[in-house]
Amino acid sequence: MKVLIVGGGIVGLSTAWALARRGHTPVVYDQGAVPNPMAASYDQHRIIRLAYGERDGYCRMVKPAFQAWRRLWHDLGEQHYVETGTLLIGSDADDYATLSRASFDRLSIPYDELDKAAVEGLCPFLRLGGNAWGLYNTEGGVLLADRIVNALAAWLRSQGTEIYPLTTVRGADFHNAIIALSDDTQHEADALVVAAGAWTPQLVPDLTSIVEPKRQVVVYLEPRTRDLEAWRNSPVIVDFGGTNETWAIPPVANTGLKLGAGVHRRGGDPSAPRTLEANEATQVLTYFQSHLRNLERYRIVEGRVCYYGCSNDERFVVNTTKRAVAITGCSGHMFKFGALFGLELAEFLTGAGDADAFVRWMQGKAMDG
Question: What predicted TM-score, i.e. pTM, was given to this entire model?
Answer without folding.
Answer: 0.96
